[in-house]
Amino acid sequence: MRKGKKMVTVLSYVILAAGLLWVSLPFVWMVLTAFKSAKEVLSMPPKWIPSVWQWENFKMALQQVPYARYFFNSVFTAVMVTVGEVFTTVLAAYAFAYIPFQFKNALFLVLVATMMVPGEILMIPNYITLSNWGWIDSYKALIIPWCASIFSIFLLKQQFESIPISYYKSAKINGCSELRFLFTILIPCSVPTLASIAILKFINCWNSYMWPLITTNSEEMRTLPVGMAAFSTEAGTRYHILMAFSILVIAPVIILYLFTQKYIVKGVSKSGLKG
Amino acid sequence: MKRKWKIRNPQFRAFLYLLPALSVIAVFQFYPVLKSFFMGFYTKFDYLTDTVEAVGLDNFLYVLKDPEFALAMKNTAVFAVISVPLGIITALVFALILNSNIRFQKFFRSAYFLPFVTSMTAVAVVWRWMLNKDYGMVNALLSVLGMPKVAWLTDAQMTIPILIVLSVWKGLGYKIIILLAALQGVDERYVKAGRMDGAGSFRRICYIILPILRPTILFLSVTSLIGAFKIFDEVYIMYGQKPGPLQSGLTIVYYIFDKFYRHWEFTTASAAAFLLFLVILFFTLLQFLFSSERRKS
């Protein structure tokens, strides 16, 4: 009996380790390639460990691609989208949670139904709207359409509703205005949920590819993923530079992930519990 | 004396609070939903002036008769039907192991989640390099095992399997986190009762834990199915903006994108997008049906 249990434990670790290897291999290969010389990249049979670690590859990647510009575009867009979404979400969630208004349920239903529609379907009419407004190839096009999320509103509404109603009543009796109640009591009580919403939004926006691809056409407006995809077709066999560049694309998000894991895990598991 | 500015009418107050969110949602979500539905019916349409000269079913008929659309449907369906169960079963195995008394649980969970937060663009570029026939890692590993080289990226047979492995790899951590959250909600007493009645761990999993996890698995199946039907980025980038060798990676969203962005056939693209919406709506309704049935019983 005991022996069988030990076997199961060993097997569990073997499976976990195999999974770890599978998950990390692409990353390992990316990092190893990023430090190889041009010759080593194309050596037969492939060499695993670079004989000399070529840090210059990163310098070359930065020279061959307007990385700073792409980086700025990505950071600026993602920050603005995140700020915008948190702003609209907080206000809308407050209205849903605390203000009794007519047609609340009807509005709620319409929003739920809209949430089911995949973003790919909205792409074409949104493109037409933006081009009619002359917004194509501008930050407005990258930012404003993403500044509200129905899902985040529902998530935050639930969080607001979990705060005892007595807080609201006592704040009201003491003459606290609604906005003050929202900003000094509700928001500080909801920091973890807000953090989950904000971080997931930031990462999503950072990684998004199709929307910035169709709404930008000049090189100055490209975000990192779009710039990376463009460079990948120009790079040819310069895989060491390409891999160095891809490290530069994913590193910011991975660093963010490592520091804010708690909130990401919380946000993701909440999105699952809804089902 | 300071006069307090206050709006008493709750209707108007609610409206002000909702205004920022609703104006964005109205313009970029409500309106396009309706617009894309109608656009599928426009047969003569000038998008620059937004004038419609004729309407009809021509776009839908064209798309439904287009062999490329049929191929896109088939490719996407095959991809979805295999990748979704495979992804969930893999994640379930890892989640069950991680939920038992295992050390470094947090470390493994974080590591598995890493692909999920990385940009699909970067991932697709890295995979393309990994699968390179002459200098790639995968063939190097195969040659260590004494196996012949495979032309991963130019063999049409390999496209869907590659996309499946990539999607399982990318989504593993996400599914594990959701399953772990559900597993932590499983009442220990049921499991203990099962143990007392002499059920081994395999039977405890099959007859106690899995039925409790059913709603979560259903949720994951539907969201993954929807996600699978929207596959695009990885194909577009991994195959150098082409739909794979011999169109083996032509997916529905690729078809829509191609019609819309390459050929500027907005109305055809809208009709195809509407058909995709119907497919997704079907899965969503299925989920509602199953979950409400469960609630009743």
- The value of Rg of chain A in angstroms is 24 Å
Mean pLDDT of chain A: 91
Alpha carbon gyration radius of chain B? 25 Å
CATH architecture of chain B: Orthogonal Bundle
Query: How helical, in percent, are the residues of chain B?
Result: over 70%
Q: What fold name stands as the CATH topology of chain B? A: MetI-like fold
Query: In DSSP terms, counting alpha (H) and pi (I) runs of 4 or more, how many helices of chain A?
Result: 14
| Structural class assignment of chain B | mainly alpha
Poorly predicted parts of chain B: none
Task: Quote the beta fraction of chain B.
Answer: under 5%
What's the helix count of chain B?
12
Q: How is the main sheet of chain B built?
A: 2 strands, antiparallel
CATH superfamily of the domain at 65-234 in chain A: MetI-like
Task: Give the structural class of chain A.
Answer: mainly alpha
* Nearest-integer average pLDDT of chain B: 89
The rough form of chain B would be described as globular
Q: Span from first to last CA of chain A?
A: 39 Å
What's the helix-strand series of chain B?
Answer: HEEHHHHHHHHHHH
CATH class of the domain at 65-234 in chain A: Mainly Alpha
What would you say this structure looks like, in words?
The complex is a heterodimer of chains A (275) and B (297). By secondary structure, chain A is mostly helical. Chain A has a domain at 65-234: MetI-like (MetI-like fold). Chain A contains 14 helices and no strands. Chain A has helices at 2-34, 38-41, 56-64, 67-98, 104-115, 119-132, 139-143, 150-161, 165-173, 178-189, 191-207, 210-215, 224-234, 239-273. In chain A, α3 (56-64) crosses α14 and α4 (67-98) packs across α8 (150-161). Chain A is globular. With 297 residues, chain B is mostly helical. Chain B has one domain (60-296): MetI-like fold (Orthogonal Bundle), CATH 1.10.3720.10. Chain B is built from twelve helices and two strands; from the N terminus they run αββααααααααααα. Chain B has helices spanning 10-39, 58-65, 67-99, 105-117, 120-130, 137-144, 159-184, 188-196, 201-229, 233-238, 252-262, 266-296, and strands at 42-46, 51-55. In chain B, strands 1-2 form a two-stranded antiparallel sheet. At the A-B interface, α1, α4, α5, α6 and α11 of A face α1, α3, α4, α5 and α6 of B.
